Amino acid sequence: MFSDIGALELVTLVVLAVLVFGPDKLPKVIQDVSRFIRKVREFSDSAKQDIRSELGPEFKDFEFEDLNPKTFLRKQLESNEDLKELKELRGTFDLKKEMNEVADAVHGRETTPAPTAAPAAVNGSPDLLKKQDKSDTDERPPYDSDAT
């Protein structure tokens, strides 16, 4: 319950409790708080038992942690044998490399083509991803006042 509280934070809480409640009332407050936490845990456990008994024997392995979507998905994915092929396919695909190749093609940098890369020109049409010659880019495009 308090696994994420460090030593300095615990000391700060103790000093603050002594200052707020005083050394004479502090033991009584600690007893009351621990009694309250114990009752809440008992109530929670009895509610879980009631729910399990109402669900029936087919849900005897039901865990309330499974209601968390992340836990549920993790269990389903670990138990599914069909996903082995997907994991193998995922291992062969390098998204970062593919994105770098596309970015290089857009910026006109030369890269070594991948075996699955598309050809540079199809049916004599120019490759739009290749950088154009300097002579073509020196001309300004015609100004169209109706388009602006």
From TrEMBL:
Residues 111-121 have a biased composition (Low complexity). Belongs to the TatB family. Residues 104-148 are annotated as: Disordered. This is Sec-independent protein translocase protein TatB. It is a single-pass membrane protein. Part of the twin-arginine translocation (Tat) system that transports large folded proteins containing a characteristic twin-arginine motif in their signal peptide across membranes. Together with TatC, TatB is part of a receptor directly interacting with Tat signal peptides. TatB may form an oligomeric binding site that transiently accommodates folded Tat precursor proteins before their translocation. GO terms for molecular function: protein transmembrane transporter activity. The lineage of its organism: Bacteria, Bacillati, Actinomycetota, Actinomycetes, Kitasatosporales. InterPro entries: TatA/B/E (IPR003369), TatB (IPR018448). Residues 128-148 have a biased composition (Basic and acidic residues). It comes from Streptomyces vietnamensis. Keywords: Cell membrane, Membrane, Protein transport, Translocation, Transmembrane, Transmembrane helix, Transport. Pfam families: TatA_B_E. The chain crosses the membrane at residues 6-22. One of its GO terms (cellular component) is TAT protein transport complex. It comes from the Bacteria. Its main location: membrane.
